[in-house]
Amino acid sequence: MNFFKIIISTADRHTCHEQLRDSLKLYRCVAVSFGLLCILQVALNISLRLPLSESYLFTSHRSHNGWLYFSHSFYYISQIKKTWPDSRNDCLQRGADLVIINSREEQVLLVQNLMWIGLSKRDGIWEWVDGTRLAQSFWCSGEPNNHKRGNEDCVQIHSCHPDHGWNDEECRHSSLWICEKNMAL
């Protein structure tokens, strides 16, 4: 009789181990499926949100903490004034940089008040904050004019004309600014 109990208890243990192993496989399968569903949800959210966001006006859509979205970039427009170097440092602390204007559409979109953009003169050459040289420009009429004793080495955007709105200014002058954070696709 004891021999019979040992055989039954050994068989029961073997069955329990198999059931435990099977349930662990099931939990792993559920966890992997859930993870894949989450990744799919994120991909759908991104792919559906980007085209929809571009179809609305830039100024009507504020995102988290004052960032605005347009054409694969987020923009932050400051509410206080700082010098060009201090403005750039603020952008860098936000994980962005001063805006680089790549198109006429972006230029027209951003023309508002006097605000620093990411363009400055280094060794007599106009360069963007990423080190690229100025290729396409939107200067106001008569600009750049280096008006103040040759020290106007930074650029502000303003509304002298919707298609043209750049003014060279002294970097130590205080102004609002625009940060840009590109979306990684």
Automatic annotation (TrEMBL):
- The record places domain C-type lectin at 70-180
* InterPro entries according to UniProt: C-type_lectin-like, C-type_lectin-like/link_sf, C-type_lectin/snaclec_domain, C-type_lectin_CS, CD209-like_CTLD, CTDL_fold
**Care to name a GO molecular-function term for this sequence?**
carbohydrate binding
Which of UniProt's keywords are assigned here?
Disulfide bond, Lectin
**Coiled-coil intervals, chain numbering:** none
| Pfam families, alphabetized | Lectin_C (PF00059)
SUPFAM superfamilies found in the cross-reference section: C-type lectin-like (SSF56436)
Name of the protein in question: C-type lectin domain-containing protein
Q: Which organism is it from?
A: Salarias fasciatus
